[in-house]
Design brief:
about 725 residues; 6-stranded mixed barrel; 3 domains; alpha+beta; 11-stranded mixed sheet; single chain; elongated; about 20% strand
């Protein structure tokens, strides 16, 4: 009965004090809507890969290089050790080798770029990728079988049943297409999965085409430990395994360790999650967003309390009468709590509408596919607990303060509430401080991002275009075709695509008896000049020195500094991986150039010419004259169609590739700006309302605009009669 009375009175007060109620509902709706979006994102990040039933027993094998130098941790190991590991290490359930690729698939005239994942058949029993059609134990049994996701099957076959049909698929840009039979349809992969694919194919299929794919492809090895097997106990076997079981030619140079699947998204090797199509995560960002969510809640609670305390004179008669009629303090507190909770529940409706309307933009911002579910427990819990908690906390301060007022003071109208009240002033100071903190945080992130994007890369990435060649032996043809055009400044060849992360996998060289891991770049004579990398010592590769193709190398300053060489020119390097222990002579030193994010130091690097008579340059890089991009692109496309008819014209702007490294920071800068805007919106709304009330006094008392502005920005003026 008492609860019913509290609800009736609370409802009447919401309708009676319309301005007060509207301001509170708007502020709370903004807070609830923003906090719900933050909760959805944080929950998505913290449950990454958790949908796998055996997630707590699945680990990725990674290597720590024994040299302890740059790039020492890598999950791209020699995955050929998988079956050996499974055979000789106790406690392992199953091992799964994976290699991933993006390629153009040809089907009934459709040429689409798809995510291919080559894996051992055990992937369908170790990981939770349920099949809607097909048998998980046999779907990847045959070399040229393929499992499609629901979405992929619909894209190619519409409403038809694709089982038993064939699709022509190339492997790793191989010129030959292989007819693969559809043997299964998998459920669409959850967005919060580190492993993504459109086509799932048997590992032995790619192994048949590239026998050494286990060493150079984009690959990883996963193991499922048996029930009750501890990670530490299993890892203890690995040093002995590496020493006693692996062949001498196995490309393992350090110690092996296990990374839990549930840590892949946030782990120190999180960038390799992108190899499988997943998104890179940062463990700090969910906490940052939670912190901003907390600040939003604090701001809205402070607003609520300020408005309640500032408008106390409007309700002083009501409070005085209740106290005079015998209402005790606890009853008044319950009444104010009920009003706050009812206000929060009304705001919840508007907050949900706001969240639903903002969700598409928020998804685009965070690059996720989040949805508000009204049936899942965690979503319902957040939807109900959040407004109730905010209502209880927001109502506590006014409930305690207003219920403590003495009836005599109320009746005599001797209350002193407003700008001179210490509690009210404290809340206002808190609001200003939090808003200033959010502004400073956003500015710092913006400045840091600007620094990353403007810092000298050690190369000239502007106006630089990289083209993927469909076959080797085309570089000379392109140089001849493009020579003499005004729009083209230079052309060079490279085995790897120019840009971040595009060098070879870390490679071991022996230098002065030390094994050192370096990144190797196979380039042609014009590479340094075309990409704008400066020589600081020695000379460039030159055609007048035929021996350069056999044994000459150019190193970067990072490698020279690491070796302690003041004069590297003329020194020797030994290829640790070459059976003949091939020796190279250093002919030059280049300035350090970034081939990865500025978050990482420049790694030691070696550049050399391919030794073969027909260099296998997979890419050409073209330097375009400033202002001639349209003409150059037209020329490149026409030349491509003439020299490689029927092939897809693939190109990348190198500067855009570097910019892409900081898209994560850009997204988060926008996300935090978005959340900070929500946080300050409620505070601004409150201040506008107060300022409007003060300005209404202008025609009565002839108060100047400057004085009104001064009053509004001073520690928040007394506003006892604003409502």
């Amino acid at each position: 009965m008492m609860l019913r009375n509290y609800l009736i009175v609370a409802g009447r007060n919401l309708l009676r004090y319309k301005v007060y109620s509207c301001i509170n509902i708007c502020g709370l709706a903004l807070a609830i809507g923003c906090c719900l979006l933050i909760f959805l994102f944080v929950w998505n990040e913290w449950t990454y890969d958790a949908f796998h039933e055996k997630a707590d027993r699945i680990f990725r094998v990674y290597e720590v290089d024994k040299t302890g130098l740059v790039g020492q941790v890598s999950a791209q190991i020699d995955i050929s050790i998988g079956p050996i590991l499974e055979e000789h290490c106790a406690g392992i359930g199953q091992a799964v080798r994976m290699v991933t690729d993006y390629d153009i698939v040809d089907f009934e005239g459709k040429r689409l770029k798809e995510r291919q994942l080559f894996a051992d058949p055990e992937i369908l029993t170790v990981f939770s990728f349920p099949l809607l059609e097909g048998d998980p134990t046999t779907a990847l049994k045959f070399s040229y079988s393929v499992v499609l996701t629901q979405e992929t099957a619909k894209r190619y076959f519409g409403s038809e049943n694709p089982l038993g049909k064939t699709i022509a698929i190339p492997f790793f840009y191989n010129e030959e297409f292989y007819d693969c039979t559809v043997t299964g349809i998998a459920e669409n992969i959850p967005k919060n999965s580190s492993i993504q694919f459109d086509f799932l194919l048997p590992y032995k299929a790619i192994k048949n085409v590239y026998s050494n794919i286990s060493r150079w492809g984009m690959r990883s090895l996963f193991v499922q430990l048996g029930d009750g097997v501890e990670r530490e106990n299993f890892e203890a076997q690995l040093p002995i395994f590496v020493k006693e079981q692996l062949e001498a030619d196995t490309a393992i140079y350090g110690s092996l360790h296990l990374q839990p699947l549930l840590e892949m998204h946030f782990g120190r090797m999180a960038s390799t999650a992108r190899l499988f199509g997943g998104l890179k995560g940062n463990a700090d960002y969910p906490y940052i967003l939670l912190g901003i969510g907390f600040l939003i809640v604090v701001l809205v609670i402070a607003n609520f309390s300020n408005l309640a305390i500032a408008g106390v004179s409007t309700r002083s008669s009501e409070i005085g009468v209740r106290r005079m009629l015998g209402a005790d303090r606890s009853q008044l507190m319950r009444q104010f709590w009920m009003e706050a909770i009812l206000t929060s529940l009304v705001a919840l409706v508007f907050g949900l509408v706001l969240a639903e309307l903002s969700l598409p933009a928020f998804n685009a911002l965070v690059q996720r596919n989040l949805e508000i579910s009204y049936t899942r427990f965690h979503s319902l819990a957040a939807i109900l607990i959040l407004p109730l908690s905010i209502g209880l906390i927001a109502g506590s301060f006014p409930a305690v303060f207003l219920s403590s007022l003495q009836p005599v003071s109320i009746v005599r109208n001797t209350l002193k509430i407003g700008g001179k009240n210490a509690f009210s002033r404290g809340l206002i100071a808190l609001q200003f401080s939090l808003c200033i903190f959010l502004v400073i945080t956003t500015l710092c992130m913006t400045r840091q991002l600007d620094y990353l994007k403007s810092k000298n890369l050690g190369m000239d990435a502007e106006q630089l275009i990289s083209l993927h060649l469909p076959e080797t032996g085309l570089l000379a043809l392109y140089k001849n075709e493009l020579a003499g055009y005004e729009s083209i400044v230079g052309i060079a060849g490279s085995r790897h695509q120019v840009g971040p992360g595009r060098g070879s996998a870390p490679h071991n060289l022996t230098i002065d008896g030390r094994e050192i891991k370096v990144c190797r770049f196979w380039v042609d004579y014009d590479y340094l000049e075309t990409v704008g990398v400066e020589l600081v010592a020695g000379r460039n590769f030159a055609r007048e020195f035929p021996s350069d193709a056999a044994d000459a190398v150019i190193i970067n300053q990072a490698l020279a500094n690491q070796l302690g060489w003041d004069d590297p020119v003329g020194r020797e390097l030994v290829d640790f991986n070459d059976p003949g222990q091939k020796r190279f002579r250093v002919i030059g030193v280049v300035e350090d150039f970034h081939f990865d994010s500025l978050r990482h130091p420049v790694a030691p690097a070696v550049l050399h010419l391919p030794a073969s008579e027909e260099p296998d340059y997979g890419y050409i890089v073209v330097k375009v004259r400033p202002g001639h991009i349209p003409a150059a692109m037209k020329l490149l496309k026409e030349t491509w169609d003439r020299l490689t008819p029927g092939e897809v014209f693939r190109y990348k702007f190198v500067d855009e590739e570097f910019d892409a490294l900081y898209r994560e920071e850009e997204r988060w800068e926008r996300i935090i700006r978005f959340a900070a805007g929500f946080a300050m919106a409620g505070d601004i709304d409150f201040r506008i309302q107060v300022t409007n009330k003060i300005e209404s006094l202008n025609p009565i008392f002839n108060i100047g605009i400057a004085h009104i502005r001064n009053l509004a920005t001073r520690d928040q003026v007394p506003c006892n009669n604003c409502f």
